[in-house]
Amino acid sequence: MIILRASIIGLLFAVLLSVANHLTAPEIINNKQAFSERKIAEMVDGRDFIATDEGYTIYESGKPYGYVISTKTPDGYNGNIDLIIAHDLERRVLAVEVIDHRETPGLGDAIEHDWINTFRGRQANTTVWHLSPEGDFDSITGATITSRAMVQAVAKVIRP
Q1: What pTM did the predictor assign?
Q2: CB–CB of 55/121 below 8 Å?
Q3: How far apart, in whole angstroms, are the C-alpha atoms of residue 25 and residue 15?
Q4: Mean pLDDT in order along the chain per 10 residues (160 residues)
Q5: Integer CA distances (angstroms), 61 to 47, 58, 64, 68, in order
Q6: Rg for the chain (alpha carbons), in Å?
Q7: Which letter, b or e, does each residue of 45-69 get, where b requires 16 or more Cβ atoms within 10 Å of its Cβ?
Q8: Where are the beta strands (DSSP E) in 24-138?
Q9: 12 — phi, psi (to 5°)?
């Protein structure tokens, strides 16, 4: 009898959690989209942008100026790193933003701070897309795997 009661209570809570997940899923998706669009607005410095199948096209004075692409690298130390990368038509990086990651607090999460600005202004063909000493990017102390994953992810989008 005790086992049956515990099973019924467990089943009831499982159903309640499933219903709650189903009801909140659309709102979660909308919030993630709104968050991404706020980040993109910051990245494109007041320029207009319009969603496309591949990401967003950036416009300046009504003419195409560049693109914003979302990407994900599975090569972070603790898993996926979700990024948004903005670049102009000459494939020069305008901005890079981390949307989500599971990197180690205090080490790998430094990708959210000043280090990420080292991508700004880098061009596809004039940048060596590796960590130093072979490449143009310093690694974050204690987070070489995360640094390498970020450089490779941005390079994959920027290089033709």
Answers
A1: 0.78
A2: no
A3: 15
A4: 87 93 91 88 92 94 95 79 93 91 62 81 91 86 81 90
A5: 8, 10, 8, 17
A6: 20
A7: eebebeeeeebbebeeeeeebbbbb
A8: 48-51, 56-60, 63-76, 79-88, 93-101
A9: -60, -45
